[in-house]
Amino acid sequence: MISFTELLNLQNCLLMTDDFRSAVHRAMSRDTKVVAAWDFDRIIPCHGDVVDTGGKQIWLDAFKMYL
């Protein structure tokens, strides 16, 4: 597994390799499944509007490509 520091040192052209995209997709899939298991209804983003109700379904719809 590549460390964050190693990732920052890579050339931009290397970041777009199939291996890199595949690794990112696997990591997003793993983390998306963790969050999908949480019990929540509200989303409070750093920027934008708060979602007071129905947040989990909105979140699931937004990240369905990783589930």
Relevant terms:
mainly alpha; 67 residues; elongated
Explain this structure:
The chain is mostly helical and 67 residues long. The chain has one domain (4-66). 55% of the residues lie in helices and 0% in strands. The protein is built from four helices and no strands. The longest helix has 19 residues, at 18-36. The model has no long low-confidence stretch (mean pLDDT 86).
Q: List unreliable stretches of 5+ residues.
A: none
Strand content: under 5%
What integer is the average pLDDT?
86
- Structural class given helices, strands, pairing? mainly alpha
- CA-based gyration radius: 15 Å
Helix fraction bin: 55-70%
Number of domains: 1
Order of helices and strands: HHHH
Q: How many E strands?
A: 0
How many helix segments?
Answer: 4
**What form results from the Cα inertia axes?**
elongated
Main sheet characteristics: none
Brief description of this entry?
The protein has 4 helices and no strands.
